[in-house]
Amino acid sequence: MAFDGITTKSISYELQYSILGGKINKIFEPNKNEVLLSIYANGKNYALNICIDSNLYRIHLTTNAKPNPLNAPNFCMLLRKHLIGYKIKAISSNDNLERIIKIELEGYNELNDLTTKYLMVELMGKHSNIILLNDKFFIIDSLRHLDTLSNSYRDILPAHEYTYPENVKNNFYTIKSAEEFCNLVLTNNVTNLTNFLVGYFTGFSKPFIKNIIIKQNIRNTDFSKDDILKMYEYLSKILNNLDSNHVSLTKYSNEKGKLDYVIDLETKTSNLDINFYIDDFYYNKEANNNYVSYRNNLLKLISHILKKYSLRLESINNKLKECENKDLYKLYGELITANLYKFSKDYNSDKVELENYYDNNTILTIPLDNTISIANNAKKYFKKYNKLKNALEIVTLQKKETEEELQYIESIIYELEYAKNIQEVNEIYNEISENPIFKDYIQSNNKTNTKKDANISTPREYHIDGFTVLVGKNNKQNDYLTTKLASPNDIWFHTKDIHGSHVILKNPSENISNDTLIKCAKLAAYYSKGRLSSNVPVDYCFVKYVKKPNGSKPGMVIYTNNKTLNVTPYISD
Fold first, then answer.
1. Are 270 and 244 in contact (CB under 8 A)?
2. CATH of domain 5-167
3. What confidence tens digit (pLDDT) does each residue in 60-108 have?
4. Dihedrals φ, ψ of 371, to 5°?
5. What are the DSSP calls for 233-298, one per residue?
6. Which CA distances in Å does 144 have to 32, 33, 105, 132, 493?
């Protein structure tokens, strides 16, 4: 959604209707980009949300509460000092359709003098800001301090006089007639109507203009004079009705086919239609952004751990390869010892050729260390043999443990890739935060820290041929589903040697057809790493044959009495 000048002006009219004359009784700063004013007006409590995030800048009334820091930030404390108890005297946006809203406030200062202050809300991408002014239009303070030394084109600093941002575009309201608008387009040799209007006039966004072009059947290129006149007529109608109940947000399908919202001639269902739309839109967008950011941070962290364990396994395999030579070193030691009588005490060479009596007396060349005696060479080979023999037992165990840990880490990555919302990601976080593999990394990584929640969400539920089928979303839920929720005669499905969800077919002591089993197997294949493959093997058995070994990692089980189906992953609508 484009929070353009048209939207800004429409919002200002709705705010005038709802909170004009209201009294500010609380002020919060949930994060570094947002300020929330609690206002009592017309017998109701309102929450005015102002956000200056470079990608999510906006101003609107909200019903969605956000957690606040324990200690209020400095700017929040300053606003409380200056604005608590003040009444909103006026709310306005200028006729140039800039994304600036001026809130005029009136109240009594600490000397009990009636004073006027202004809260300027500038919604301009990375230059967005919230600025508090005194009655002389001098800056008291701002959420962001800017000066010309930091590549800003104007100073936004305490005690500096406030100046409006420089506007390089033109004001549509200065166009007095359709003929003037038509001449403007034609004399500028315009080839793309959308690009021209967005680039020439203040306040218009591409989605706003494109929606008009689609709705009014106007050609964007190779347009006629009639197209230009239709555009002017419709634009004028919208602008002349911004303060009425005939303009609201409407759904618009963008180039990617995704639904968006733009201002259009639409009858309002309430005087706060635009506020409600914007509040809902940005609440969902922020929730999705938080989910994506949270999930990606965890994926990045766990991918780093996966790389570490992969390198560890590579090192273990190299050690195992070295251990394969242990019997050769033993043979070297035995052959040298058996032939010691042949060598003088001062024998010095870097190799020796001896008959291998284990292999039909074939000649075997044995490397020697000529800095020590030949007898000590034999001892050295026996020592190396014993060392590798002992290492083999340890390294073999290490390999098994590391492979299990790698499988578990890969299962976490799979779960994160298919997690649908922040609750599912949080469940995975809670699981890994208890595991020694991840614990130290997570504690030192502030980006992924979050509040723990012991609750397990509801598994996915499907209905296949009249049966209920449950699908786990993560390892802990898989354990709960299989060991707690399922009955012994329910049927358990899981992809063979492939990471995936536990799938339970609830079986009320009925005969299950082969067709139903295949459908459930396809569902299990779909919720696995084999989703994009074909002919995926899926094991199934009664739940009573599925066991969870003591001390095993979440989601890991052993099973017997199973059968296997090879299926192509599929999920029914």
1. no
2. 2.30.310.10
3. 999 998 999 999 999 999 999 999 999 999 999 988 899 999 999 999 9
4. -90, -10
5. HHHHHHHHTTTSTTEEEEEEE-TTS-EEEEEEE---SSTTHHHHHHHHHHHHHHHHHHHHHHHHHH
6. 9, 9, 21, 11, 56
